[in-house]
């Protein structure tokens, strides 16, 4: 147990020390370009999760970049949770280690000093709007990846020129891609739940007409998240082959990338 705790502390320190670029994503560096991907591959393999050695397409790389912001905690003050989520995004840690406490965002939102209660409501509306603007391009990106995966698997199954040993890593990549889409859908649902929790508690603590603006922003995010979570998938995880709707009350358990 002590060894595991020390290892986690080292990983958190390395992840937390990475500089950030656009939208808070880690800038390309030795950690994000080399160490984290390799560590994530071997960590996922050790846990028995699907992990492919195939090089990623441009769309697959972009899908992971776009996912980063949506799977992170919604408020930057949740520092520990952000570092854990960063390691989960790299697959160094399993996604199950992420916090599922809807109160996390509210604590971050109210943890600092603001000029007035309007500032808190405005920040809530801004965060919901920022998520909404990210969901649409992620959905388009995901649709392209799923379409390419359909071609990939048809070629694996139908072409005599593809060696049989490439079937497993090809399917592993499909599982990775669909698992990421399902994870983003689940975390967007969790963000919506967190925003609603924060709004309800803000109204109780400090009622304001600004609550109307925040409520509308959350509703707009919900409307945008719906099509993402209905995106037709190949069905690598079984079921109907589509992402699930975001939970309205309790968040669903995180997706595990099992093969």
What percentage of the residues does DSSP assign to strands (E)?
under 5%
Question: Low-confidence segments, ≥5 residues, pLDDT <50?
Answer: 1-19, 246-259
Structure classification: mainly alpha
N→C terminal distance: 27 Å
Number of strands: 0
Order of helices and strands: HHHHHHHH
Mean pLDDT: 83
Oligomer: single chain
Number of helices: 8
What is the alpha-carbon Rg in Å?
A: 19 Å
Describe the largest sheet.
none
> Overall 3D geometry?
elongated
Helix content: 55-70%
Number of domains: 1
Report on the architecture of this protein.
The protein has 259 residues and is mostly helical. The protein has one domain. The chain contains 8 helices and no strands. It has helices spanning 2-16, 30-46, 58-71, 79-89, 103-110, 117-158, 167-205, 210-228. Helix 1 packs across helix 4 (79-89) and helix 7 runs antiparallel to helix 8. The longest helix is centred in the middle third of the chain and has 42 residues, at 117-158. It starts with a helix and ends in a 31-residue tail after the last helix. Mean pLDDT is 83; it is low at 1-19 and 246-259.
């Amino acid at each position: 147990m002590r060894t595991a705790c020390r290892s986690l502390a080292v990983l958190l320190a390395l992840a937390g020390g990475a500089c950030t670029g656009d939208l808070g994503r880690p800038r390309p560096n030795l950690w994000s370009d080399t160490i984290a991907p390799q560590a994530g591959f071997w960590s996922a393999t050790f846990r028995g999760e699907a992990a492919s050695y195939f090089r990623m397409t441009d769309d697959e790389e972009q899908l992971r970049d776009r996912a980063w912001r949506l799977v992170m905690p919604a408020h930057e003050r949740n520092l520990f949770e952000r570092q854990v989520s960063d390691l989960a995004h790299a697959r160094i840690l399993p996604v199950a280690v992420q916090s599922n406490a809807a109160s996390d965002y509210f604590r971050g939102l109210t943890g600092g000093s603001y000029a007035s209660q309007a500032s808190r409501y405005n920040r809530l509306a801004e965060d919901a709007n920022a998520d909404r603007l990210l969901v649409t391009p992620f959905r388009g990106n995901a649709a392209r990846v799923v379409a390419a995966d359909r071609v990939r698997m048809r070629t694996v199954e139908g072409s005599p020129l593809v060696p049989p040993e490439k079937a497993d890593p090809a399917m592993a990549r499909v599982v990775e891609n669909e698992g990421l889409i399902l994870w983003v859908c689940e975390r967007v649902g969790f963000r919506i739940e967190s925003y609603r929790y924060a709004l309800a508690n803000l109204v109780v603590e400090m009622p304001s007409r600004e609550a109307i603006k925040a409520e509308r922003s959350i509703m707009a995010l919900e409307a945008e998240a719906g099509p993402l979570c209905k995106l037709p998938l190949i069905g690598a995880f079984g079921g109907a082959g589509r992402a699930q709707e975001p939970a309205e009350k309790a968040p669903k358990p995180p997706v595990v990338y099992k093969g």
